[in-house]
Amino acid sequence: MAKRGKTRGGSTPPQPVTSKRVIEGWQGPEGGRIRLAQAGEADAVQDLMAAAGARLDKPAADQFGGELAVALCAGLTGQEAWIRAMTPLLVQRTYLDAIPGLSLVLVAEDKAGDIVGAAYSMPPMPIMNGAQQQGFPPEQLMSIPIALAKLAGLSVTEKARGAGWATHLLKRTVQVYEQLDLLLFYGQCPVGSGLNRFYQQRGFTPLAPQEKLDLAPLSLPFGVDPGPGEQLFVRWKR
After folding, report:
1. What pLDDT score does 8 carry?
2. Residue 46 pLDDT more than 80?
3. Is residue 164 part of a domain?
């Protein structure tokens, strides 16, 4: 078997992400870790999301330490496994019930064991609901969470800012979705907040304020509208 070598630029390719890595985490700033949220941490994450003007959906919050990210973690071994893990969530349950298994909540834990940041990503449920209302067949509906996901919230406590936690949280979130072969990862931020520059510097493309995200490249006959006073940022598969 050939060994993994360095890329043309001389850097070593990142190691494949495993479900064990997501659960146990990666090394973070100042001796801390970035890892999957665990049981008992929902309130801390909810507070962080609220500080960022976001919200942790109750179905996901209720499954910390349970079904959170189970389909995503299964899908890290390949798209067939991803589809097998996703199918019962979308076929045998309501979309709300499917949220935990298809969502990713990574937390930043400092060396003292305190939660100082969180990133919450989820399947695009409004898009899936809209597609269902337009009569999309089940197999086409299932293709939506395979193709795209939304960064619903990213937040770091005030005392921990400046150490690079937000960058690490975003990097590991993107790494998971890149391994899942996601075609589009997007989010939104307040116009004038300066966050558009943060995301742009980390590989996203900010859209103009109030510009709609066209999903025609994904063969979806509708788009995503930003909220009032917000703008979208997107990352298409490279």
Report:
1. 47
2. yes
3. yes
